[in-house]
C-alpha cells in the first residue's frame, strides 16, 4: 500500500498578479531589453523580477535576503506559472543585487521604460487631456555620504538628521500609472528637475501636446518657457515669490470694484452628489521673454480661486493667531521678575512688530503706545545730593480693527494658478479640479514609502543599487495601479459596489477598493500537492464565489488558478469575513 505525502503552498493572489504582469508585457520587454551576459545562470531576468514583484505585493516587503526562502516554499506554484523547473539559488541576494545594478544602466532602463509605456498606452490609452503629473520626494537612508554620491543631506519632511536621496516621478492621469522615474542626490533643489523630467516623459511616451501638472516649484519662468517652446502646456500654482499675496489681493479688489461676479466651481462625488467647493475669476496676460536671440511671446491665464474648505481651515488658524497676538501684546504691560520693561516707544514697537510678524496681522491691529513717567525721591548719598529720579515705561493698548479683520478673513483661502492651456480646452473649473487631483501622484509616493513597498528606511549602500531599487519599485507600482483601475472601472460599469472585503465590517460596500485590500482578501488560497508514488495531484483550495467575482472584475480568467490544479470550492459566508 502506497502512503501518500502532501505539500501545502500558500499561493494567495500570486497567480492573477503574474497574469497581470504578462498582460502588461513586463516579462517579455525585460527579457528583450536586458539580454543576459553569456555567463548568466538561472531564470531570465523577466521571470526573476516577476517573482520578486509577486513577493513584494503579497508580503509587503522588497528586501532581497528573504526571497530565496520564500521561493523555496512556493516552488511547485512558481514552476507551474512559468512551465519549467528552476533552482531557488536564482534568488540569492547576490543575484538580485546584480539585477539592481543592471536596472541602474540608464540607457537600457530608458529603452525598457519607453517600450513598456508605449505598450501600456496602446492598451489603456492616454486620457483626453493628456495630463502628466510631476513631483519629487525624498527618502532617508542609513548609507554613507560621499561627496559625489546620491546620498546627501538636504531639506526633508521626514528626518532631517539623516541623509537622503531624491526621487523624481511622473505619473499618468487619472491612472496614477508611473511613466518615468529618476534618482538624484538628496541635496538637489526641485526647480531645475522639472525640465529634464518633462523631456524624459516626452521621449518615453512619444507624445506631444501634454499638460504637465506640478506644484509651485514648477512655476519657474524657465520651466514655463520650456513648455511653450516644446508645444506643451503647464498648470501649477504660483508661489509667493512669483505672485505675492498683495498682488492677489489687488487683483481681487480690482475684480470686485468692476462689479464682476465670481465663477463658481462645483465637484461631483462618488455618490453622485454635487457641491460648490470654490469660486473665482481669471485674467489673461501676455508674457514675453528672450530665448537664443529670439523674442518669445505667449499668453498665460491667471486663475484666482478661493477654496471654501481652505478658507474655513485658514480662518480658524487666523483667528487663533489674532487671539494669541492680542494676549501677547497685552502681556507687555505686565511687570514682574524676568519681564522686559520698554523704556522707549521704538523698543515697544519693535516688540509688537515681532509678535505680529505677518502683515495681515499688522493691518488688523491698532496699537496705542502710552508713556508712563514716574518720579522717585532719592536721598543724599555720599557726594550725590538728594534728588527726584525720573523713569519712563511704555505701555501698550491693542485694539482690533474690525473692518480690517473682516477684510482679512474674506481674503483667506485664495490661490492663483497659471496655465497656458486655452480656456476652450481647460475651463476655470477644470483648472481647479485638475490641480486638486494632485493627490494622485502623492498616493504613489505613499505606496513607495509606506507599507506596500516600504522603501524607507533604506539600508542599501551602493549608489547603483539604490538607483536600481527605486526603478524596480516603480515596476511594482504598475500592477498595483492597473488592478485598481480594472476593478473600479468594472464596478462603475455594473453600477454596484463590492462588499465582503472587510472583516470588521462584512456588509461594507466600496466603489473604489484598493489593490492592497484585494490582495489581502486572497490570502486564504492554497495549493495542495499530493504524491502517490510516481503520481502527483494538484488541488487549489480556498477559492470561493467572492474570489471569482473579483477575478471577473479584474478581467482575469479563472484559468489563472485552474491551470495549477483542480479547484476545491469553498463556501463564502459574509459573516465569516
In which range does the helix fraction lie?
40-55%
Overall pLDDT score: 89
**Total DSSP E strands:** 17
Helix tally equals: 20
Strand content: 15-25%
Describe this structure as you would to a colleague.
The structure is a single chain. With 577 residues, this protein is α+β, with helices and mostly antiparallel strands. It has 20 helices and 17 strands. It has helices spanning 14-23, 26-33, 45-59, 67-72, 75-82, 93-104, 106-124, 194-205, 221-229, 245-257, 308-331, 345-356, 359-364, 402-410, 428-436, 439-449, 463-494, 515-521, 545-553, 559-562; strands at 5-10, 131-140, 164-172, 177-185, 211-213, 233-237, 263-268, 274-291, 294-307, 365-378, 387-400, 414-419, 498-499, 509-510, 526-532, 535-541, 566-568. The strands form four sheets. It has a nine-stranded mixed sheet, sandwiched between helices. The chain has a four-stranded mixed sheet with strand order 1-15-16-17, with helices on one face. It has a two-stranded antiparallel sheet with strand order 10-11. A hairpin with an 8-residue loop joins strand 10 and strand 11. Helix 2 (26-33) crosses helix 3 (45-59), helix 3 (45-59) crosses helix 17 (463-494) and helix 7 (106-124) crosses helix 8. The longest helix has 32 residues, at 463-494. The protein is elongated and about 120 Å long. The two termini are 41 Å apart.
Amino acid at each position: 500500500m502506497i502512503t501518500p505525502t502532501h505539500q501545502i503552498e500558500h499561493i494567495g493572489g500570486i497567480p492573477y498578479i503574474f497574469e497581470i504582469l504578462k498582460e502588461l508585457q513586463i516579462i517579455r520587454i525585460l527579457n528583450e531589453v536586458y539580454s543576459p551576459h553569456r555567463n548568466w545562470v538561472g531564470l531570465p531576468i523577466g521571470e526573476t523580477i516577476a517573482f520578486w514583484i509577486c513577493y513584494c505585493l503579497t508580503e509587503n516587503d522588497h528586501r532581497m535576503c528573504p526571497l530565496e526562502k520564500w521561493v523555496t516554499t512556493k516552488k511547485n506554484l512558481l514552476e507551474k506559472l512559468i512551465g519549467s523547473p528552476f533552482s531557488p539559488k536564482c534568488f540569492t541576494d547576490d543575484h538580485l543585487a546584480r539585477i539592481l545594478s543592471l536596472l541602474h544602466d540608464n540607457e537600457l532602463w530608458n529603452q525598457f521604460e519607453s517600450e513598456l509605456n508605449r505598450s501600456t498606452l496602446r492598451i489603456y490609452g492616454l486620457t483626453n487631456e493628456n495630463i502628466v503629473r510631476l513631483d519629487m520626494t525624498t527618502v532617508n537612508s542609513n548609507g554613507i555620504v560621499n561627496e559625489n554620491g546620491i546620498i546627501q543631506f538636504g531639506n526633508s519632511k521626514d528626518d532631517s538628521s539623516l541623509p537622503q536621496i531624491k526621487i523624481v516621478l511622473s505619473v499618468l492621469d487619472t491612472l496614477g500609472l508611473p511613466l518615468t522615474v529618476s534618482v538624484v542626490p538628496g541635496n538637489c533643489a526641485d526647480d531645475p528637475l522639472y525640465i529634464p523630467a518633462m523631456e524624459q516623459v516626452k521621449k518615453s511616451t512619444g507624445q506631444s501636446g501634454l499638460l504637465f501638472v506640478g506644484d509651485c516649484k514648477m512655476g519657474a519662468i524657465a520651466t514655463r518657457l520650456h513648455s511653450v517652446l516644446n508645444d506643451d502646456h503647464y498648470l501649477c500654482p504660483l508661489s509667493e515669490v512669483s505672485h505675492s499675496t498683495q498682488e492677489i489681493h489687488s487683483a481681487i479688489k480690482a475684480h470686485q470694484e468692476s462689479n464682476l461676479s465670481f465663477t463658481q466651481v462645483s465637484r461631483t462625488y462618488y455618490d453622485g452628489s454635487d457641491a460648490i467647493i470654490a469660486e473665482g475669476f481669471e485674467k489673461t496676460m501676455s508674457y514675453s521673454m528672450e530665448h537664443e536671440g529670439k523674442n518669445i511671446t505667449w499668453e498665460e491665464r491667471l486663475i484666482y480661486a478661493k477654496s471654501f474648505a481652505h478658507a474655513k481651515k485658514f480662518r480658524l488658524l487666523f483667528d487663533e493667531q489674532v487671539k494669541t497676538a492680542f494676549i501677547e501684546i497685552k502681556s507687555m504691560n505686565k511687570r514682574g521678575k524676568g519681564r522686559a520693561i520698554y523704556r522707549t516707544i521704538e523698543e515697544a514697537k519693535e516688540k509688537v512688530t515681532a509678535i505680529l510678524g505677518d502683515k495681515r496681522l499688522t493691518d488688523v491691529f491698532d496699537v496705542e503706545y502710552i508713556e508712563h513717567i514716574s518720579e522717585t525721591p532719592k536721598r543724599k548719598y555720599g557726594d550725590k545730593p538728594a534728588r527726584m529720579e525720573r523713569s519712563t515705561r511704555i505701555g501698550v493698548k491693542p485694539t482690533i480693527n474690525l473692518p480690517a479683520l473682516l477684510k482679512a478673513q474674506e481674503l483667506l483661502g485664495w490661490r492663483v494658478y497659471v496655465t497656458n492651456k486655452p480656456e476652450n480646452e481647460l475651463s476655470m473649473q477644470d483648472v481647479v479640479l485638475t490641480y486638486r487631483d494632485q493627490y494622485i501622484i502623492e498616493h504613489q509616493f505613499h505606496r513607495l514609502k509606506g507599507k506596500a513597498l516600504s522603501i524607507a528606511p533604506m539600508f542599501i549602500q551602493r549608489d547603483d543599487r539604490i538607483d536600481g531599487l527605486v526603478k524596480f519599485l516603480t515596476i511594482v507600482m504598475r500592477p498595483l495601479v492597473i488592478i485598481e483601475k480594472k476593478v473600479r472601472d468594472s464596478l462603475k460599469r455594473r453600477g454596484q459596489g463590492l462588499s465582503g472585503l472587510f472583516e470588521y465590517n462584512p456588509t461594507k460596500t466600496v466603489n473604489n477598493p484598493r489593490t492592497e485590500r484585494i490582495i489581502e482578501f486572497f490570502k486564504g488560497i492554497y495549493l495542495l500537492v499530493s504524491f502517490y508514488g510516481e503520481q502527483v495531484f494538484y488541488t487549489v483550495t480556498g477559492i470561493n464565489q467572492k474570489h471569482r467575482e473579483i477575478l471577473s472584475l479584474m478581467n482575469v480568467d479563472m484559468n489563472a488558478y485552474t491551470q495549477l490544479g483542480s479547484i476545491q470550492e469553498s463556501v463564502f459566508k459574509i459573516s465569516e469575513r
